[in-house]
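Sequence in, structure out.
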Amino acid sequence: SAKRCHIISGGRVVSHKEGKLVVETIIKENDPMPLGFVKFFDTAEVGVVVATADGGVRVKDATAGKAFAVAGLREGDLVTAFDGKKVESPDAFRRLLRGKLAEGGDAVLDVRRASKVLAITVPSND
């Protein structure tokens, strides 16, 4: 368990047990994996990169040959919902996508492209 935890931007993290040093880790500012074992899911791993936009997230990249591009998602599309849930940020999109990958099944994205509203089904990799 963790007691007296603090958010830090850099420095030393130490753990003691019965008065003896157990673990010491040096954390560097802006290190993408400061503890080494904590890694967040990156949507680029499955072929889609999104950015913040008004009303949803804007597709920056849908990698050719990957499920999102094959399903018809294009750079510049605005994703407004994921399986009926509003998408308000890239982090929300990442969490919804990660949950869908764990759960399995196809994902349905509500997408605005120019003046059209589309429902794009992205098949699972089952």
